[in-house]
Specification:
The complex is a heterodimer of chains A (about 240) and B (about 270). Chain A has helices at about 20-35, 40-50, 55-70, 70-80, 80-85, 130, 135-140, 140-150, 150-160, 195-200, 205-210, and strands at about 5, 15, 105-110, 115-120, 170-175, 180-185, 225. Chain A is an alpha/beta fold. Chain B is of the alpha+beta class. Chain B has a domain at about 175-270: SH3 type barrels (Roll), CATH 2.30.30.50. Chain B has helices at about 30-40, 60-75, 80-90, 95-100, 100-115, 120-135, 160-165, 225, 245-250; strands at about 55, 190, 210-220, 235-245, 260-265, 270. Chain B has a five-stranded antiparallel beta sheet. In chain B, helix 3 packs across helix 5. The chains are: A alpha/beta (about 240), B alpha+beta (about 270). At the A-B interface, helix 1, helix 2, helix 7, helix 8 and helix 9 of A face strand 1, helix 2, helix 3, helix 5 and helix 6 of B.
Chain lengths: ~240, ~270
């Protein structure tokens, strides 16, 4: 960020923006790490680029293809890492051994008309970043992590997902090195659709298991967004 | 307020767990109290909490930078992500775990790791934090970014073996064929052991003592109890995805009897169910 950043508060003089304690600590640690040779500024830049190109669209395309192509579906269920590679997602990137936090064990959870999966990590916030990008804030909260493993139907209802009793709810607590993504049931009303059309209705929330794909619904439910003081800039 | 109480503070008032004196005498700490103090704060599954408004959040630049620094430290063999999880999700204690922002804890973990592993001294860190603060004392008038004075000698740094051994294989694939024959097979009935919690684990408290069925023989890996403490010298073991019936995990589970839960557990935590 450049320039003199001030913003006007109602009824007060313009305020000079103050650096936060977190920003100060972050800068201090990165400077020291580079000065000590733990990593280089170039390493940091390259990894940032890797993170910035991640997006849930990769997972959406993955599911749409699995709906249309039985052979790909079989591969997705047998070897989701190989299936990801076919979709242009290499889990070994960007280090040659994968991302340190996501590992390289990936499993696709197949929903059926009588089985619904939903994903959580009760111990931290493990999430398949290579294929879905960064996790949403709510997924990381203690509230979601505390409740989904014990009151899954109530929590899913809060997301607007009401499941009948004859559908088994299976909560996947991704507490170790496997990362998971839900393969939802292809909804009625999508007969004859192209891969592009199908991709659009597979939202990130469907891939976590807190929503079901529906014709006409191409975005996650709208939630309040807590704003950042100095949000990520993509320059 | 979104992630806890919908702004309703009065419903959160409760009888305090109050002691008139700090540092209870040893005879005043019973088993249950000891267990509560020792419980790792990251292990929140099943804790009661009222419904919340599930929110999204815009990411701060420092949060992305922090995440990337953590990952790059793993990439370059300064730590494994399991060490980061132990330091940032457990070591810092319950108050900070629940009080600091999510990436504030990641940041805390970086600082702690660099000092503990002798890459920097605490004095250097304190001085540098003071210096960066002074740099922006008059407010932010220009780019807010790290400005390293030098570029260190990357060859002179102590690093783990993992970041080299795993190249071209991945993790956990880098541990393949190191743990012998798996002790359990798909379909086996298993019991999760009730071992005490000390410092770190990834076997959740809500699973201890529960019986389930092996759904997948996953992979070989160091156990989290070793990996979290940089014990590359230890033996790897098999991991299993185990399926539990919700009704077996929670007394008075409110859903239908066929609801299930799966988790991935290392062999040391499992015994055949009788």
């Amino acid at each position: 960020m450049t320039g003199n950043h001030t913003h006007q508060h109602a009824g007060t003089a313009p305020m000079v923006e103050e650096v936060t304690d977190f920003e100060v600590l972050e800068i201090a640690l990165r400077e020291l790490a580079i000065e000590k040779g733990l990593f280089t500024a170039e390493d940091h830049r390259r990894y940032t680029e890797h993170v910035e190109q991640l997006e849930p669209a990769a997972g959406s395309r993955f599911v749409a293809k699995a709906w249309l192509d039985p052979e790909f579906r079989r591969l997705a269920l047998d070897d989701a890492i190989a299936a990801s590679r076919e979709m242009g997602v290499d889990w070994l990137h960007p280090t040659g051994f994968g991302t340190p936090s996501d590992f390289t064990a990936f499993e696709v959870l197949e929903d059926t008309p009588t089985l619904h999966h939903v994903i959580v990590c009760t111990l931290c916030s493990c999430y398949p970043r290579p294929i879905l990008g960064m996790s949403p804030e709510w997924y990381r909260t203690p509230n979601y992590r505390r409740r989904i493993v014990r009151w899954p139907r109530q929590v899913l209802a809060e997301f607007g997902l009401y499941l009948p009793e004859d559908v088994e709810v299976r909560v996947e607590d991704s507490n170790s090195k496997h990362r998971f993504m839900v393969l939802p049931v292809r909804p009625d009303g999508t007969e004859g659709w192209s891969e592009e059309q199908l991709t659009e209705i597979v939202t990130r929330d469907c891939l976590i298991g807190v929503a079901l794909p529906k014709p006409g619904v191409t975005a996650n439910a709208v939630r309040p967004v807590h704003p950042a003081i100095r949000p990520v800039t993509s320059d | 307020m979104g992630n806890s109480v919908l702004g309703d503070l009065s419903s959160q008032l409760r009888v305090a767990f109050h002691r008139v004196q700090d540092w209870a005498y040893p005879d005043q700490v019973d088993r249950g109290t000891f267990r509560a103090f020792m419980k790792t704060p990251h292990d929140v599954g099943g804790e009661p909490d009222p419904p919340a408004l599930f929110e999204d959040k815009e990411e701060e630049q420092w949060e992305l930078n922090t995440f990337v620094t953590c990952e790059v430290l793993g990439w370059r063999g300064i730590w494994t992500s399991e060490e980061r999880r132990r330091i940032g999700n457990v070591d810092l204690g319950r108050t900070n775990y629940l009080g600091l922002p999510y990436y504030g804890r990641w940041l805390w973990a970086i600082a702690r790791c660099l000092v503990d592993k002798r890459h920097i001294t605490l004095g250097e860190l304190i001085e540098r934090v003071g210096e960066v603060r002074d740099r922006y004392a008059g407010g932010i008038n220009g780019p807010l970014d790290a400005a390293p004075r030098t570029t260190g000698n990357t060859d002179a740094v102590a690093r783990n073996h993992h970041h080299v051994d795993a190249i071209g294989k991945g993790d956990p694939q880098c541990f393949a064929d190191t743990a012998g024959t798996p002790g359990f097979a798909v379909g086996d009935a298993v019991l999760v052991r009730e071992l005490p919690t000390i410092f770190y684990t990834r076997t959740q408290e809500y699973l201890r003592g529960a019986s389930g069925t092996v759904a997948k023989v996953s992979y070989e890996s160091l156990a989290p109890e070793d990996e979290a403490f940089d014990r590359e010298d230890q033996e790897s073991e098999w991991f299993y995805i185990v399926r539990f019936r919700m009704a077996d995990l929670w007394t008075a589970y409110t859903g239908p009897p066929n609801d299930t839960l799966q988790a991935e557990i290392s062999e040391r935590w499992l015994r055949p169910a009788v």
